Amino acid sequence: MKKIFNVMMLVIAMTMFTVNSFAQAPNNKQRLTREQLSEKQAKYIANDLALDDETTAKFINTYTQCQKEIWALGPRPRRNGNNNEEQIEQNIKKRFEMSEKILDIRQKYYKEYSKFLTQKQIQRVYEIEKNMMKRFAQRKGKNGQRPMRGKHEQRLMDKNSTK
Predict the structure, then answer these.
(1) CA–CA separation, 41 vs 132, rounded Å?
(2) Cα atoms found within 13 Å of the Cα of residue 77, Cβ hemisphere only
(3) Which residues contact 137 (CB under 8 A, 6 or more apart)?
(4) What contacts 89, CB < 8 A, 6 or more positions away?
(5) What is the pTM for the complete model shown?
(6) What are 1-49's pLDDT values in tens digits?
(7) How far is Cα 83 from Cα 118, in angstroms, rounded to an integer?
(8) What is the dihedral sign for C-alpha 98, 104, 108, 114?
């Protein structure tokens, strides 16, 4: 009887430890920093382009530098629909300024990419980057955060809000 009791206690203890360890496993997942994400994206793109080791190293360095410059601009201005005419005008002008700065950076790095990538490869870089951004936006929407809206959806919402 004493032996059965000891075995039962051992089984209960093992079950408790096992359940506890399984419950903690998902919490160990850490988010990547911006820099780590940028480097991971660059490696993914370089792999897709089948670049050699030297070109891959150049590409990763250039791509991450480009991302850092874009991040340094700060967050993109948000669209606030409940503003007066002057505030809306200021917001639009701020978005134009931000777009121009981003375009300047993209043109600068296009010249850098042209030093070691073909035009087809550069075009593919932009395609892959665009697809990644779409996936991030979709994933962001699935996680309960506000998804990015397309032009068509925004127009529908604007029409409905004015009625």
Answers:
(1) 8
(2) 18
(3) 147, 148
(4) none
(5) 0.65
(6) 677 756 666 556 666 655 555 555 555 568 888 899 999 999 999 999 9
(7) 46
(8) positive
